[in-house]
Amino acid sequence: MEIATLSPSGSALDNHRQAEFENRFVHALNESGMLQLVSLGHRAGLFDQLANGVAVTSSELARLSQLNERYIREWLGGLTVSGIVEHDADSMTYRLPPEHAALLTNGRDANLAVFAQYIPLLGQVEDDVLESFQHGKGVPYEKFHRFHEVMAEDSGQTVLPALFDSILPLAPEIPERLEAGIHVLDLGCGRGLALMEMAERFPNSHFKGYDLSQDAITWACEQAERRSLNNVSFEVRDLSDFNSTAETQAFDFVTTFDAIHDQAKPLNLLQGICRTLKRNGVYLAQDIHSSSHHHHDREHPLGPLLYTISIMHCMSVSLAQGGEGLGTMWGREVARDYFTRAGFSRIDVHQLPHDIQNDYWVLRP
Ligand SMILES: C[S@@+](CC[C@H](N)C(=O)[O-])C[C@H]1O[C@@H](n2cnc3c(N)ncnc32)[C@H](O)[C@@H]1O
């Protein structure tokens, strides 16, 4: 006999729909556990140790990595049941197949383990975000231990490999002008990897990076010195009032990589960019690809993750600066409105095949 099931509100339940959701949820719990294990393995350098495809015991891996065997064995157990490593029960060995190694270590393809770090990184601030649900004041950058390190690892593999072949040519005149020698500004530059890469490639041009974070800028300055780059400089600068502080018509090319939607005052920053660009200048903005309407993003390949990142970081850091809290998923419609209000008259938007997460805007005053 079919047992009628009622919801807490008393209405009849579709048991099939409930079972489907339950399965999906259990799957998600397992997958989120797997991401935590991957993040640990990445940070401990364990995937690099396993990348040669040789089967090892937990003791051998502990010796190679100089880490504790009990922890290594538990981690390998988790990776075995996650299907990431192959386990031979007779020889008690574990092996990372080359197809998995290709996606969990640095090499030709993006290292997916880098992105797994966002789960524990964001989890650190759950108590602060929960409090923000009450007072709405957001969570400051200082609460995000390792944010700039992980962000640079992320953009280091999404932006840098595509910079010269795909991203800069979106503004067709820019590569040639960079060769000849121009002034370039990157705003919200973080650790400044994109700028340093350009500075190395185009020695006739001059590059500047501004960011709010003292830590990120110190790291960038030290790195530029280590790489003997004398055509790039970095400055700690709060860009909230860039509309009034930007140097007038000083730069030929301005870039922002993933750095508008989490600003305190995005419109002020965009107006400042308009002001600091020379008349024939170009602004290139990489920012999140989404619609400004939730219901259009149901099929977005990263929708749930990006809304999570928004609440746990982007929206919250903006609100903590007394800002607008636009959110990661501000979307094309709102972005276009902001760019127009800032004073840009020629606005083109592109997507690139290597990047399912971002739009690339090319804007001219
Ligand atoms: C998502 S990160 C992107 C960093 C870098 N462009 C990259 O792609 O690796 C956004 C950056 O904006 C900076 N930022 C946020 N608010 C700022 C403000 N008010 N003034 C200057 N920089 C700010 C942050 O410190 C952070 O480095």
Automatic annotation (TrEMBL):
GO terms for molecular function: methyltransferase activity. Residues 179-289 form the Methyltransferase domain. It comes from the Bacteria. One of its GO terms (biological process) is methylation. Keywords: Methyltransferase, Transferase. The keyword Methyltransferase applies. InterPro entries: Methyltranfer_dom, SAM-binding_MTase, SAM-dependent_MTases_sf, WH-like_DNA-bd_sf, WH_DNA-bd_sf, WHD_Rv2258c. CDD domains: AdoMet_MTases. Pfam families: Methyltransf_31, WHD_Rv2258c. Residues 37-105 form the S-adenosylmethionine-dependent methyltransferase Rv2258c-like winged HTH domain. This is Class I SAM-dependent methyltransferase.
